[in-house]
Amino acid sequence: MDGHIFYVFGRYPADLKPYGAVDGVKQYPIVDLVMCHGDFLNSDHDYIHKNRNVKGFGSHGDIMIRDRKMYVAPTPFALTVGTTGLRTLILPADWPVDDRFQLVGELRRTAADELVVGYAFDLRTNEITAQKIPNPRAGIYHDFRAYRVRTDAPVPVTMISDVVQPLDIPHHHGEA
């Protein structure tokens, strides 16, 4: 399937001491794994990311500021219930799957009321503000299905009803 993006999310135990090392290599046992189609996280295919810069910063005016965007999307673990401790595949609802898979969930994402189309960053106050417009696709549904291989537990997968927006993560002193 050309031109499609997939994301793989895996989690391992916080305490790795019981797992030790094998032949000097530290072990990271995977507790659960979700592979999802990129549209599950963002179905907007129009935006093309470009890094930009502005010159003239600093007391001598010879420092460049690079605008390198970092996108933080909620993971499928934060968006769904029923994925903990299991392997799950999330695909658009109209994608065919073969008989090796069992359907374990019907999932729906809804387009937001507003779109962020820009932002401004004030270097004096370290404040960032979003520039938003009404989303012309607001309320449109995007349907997905969750699958597992037939030999895995058929634990149902559902959406969390109240999805929390990514948190404002404060930067600690000294972080870039």
Report on the structure:
- The chain has one helix at residues 76-79, and strands at 6-11, 21-22, 25-26, 32-37, 52-57, 63-67, 80-81, 87-92, 101-110, 114-122, 127-134, 141-149, 158-159.
- It is mainly beta and 176 residues long.
- The longest helix has 4 residues, at 76-79.
- The two termini are 38 Å apart.
- The model is unreliable at 167-176 (pLDDT under 50).
Distance between the termini: 38 Å
Main sheet attributes: strand count, strand direction, barrel closure: 5 strands, mixed
Beta-strand content: 35-45%
State the helix count.
Answer: 1
In which range does the helix fraction lie? under 10%
Structural class: mainly beta
Q: What is the strand tally?
A: 13
Q: Give Rg in angstroms.
A: 21 Å
Strand order of the largest sheet: 1-4-8-12-9
Q: Unreliable stretches, pLDDT < 50, 5 or more residues?
A: 167-176
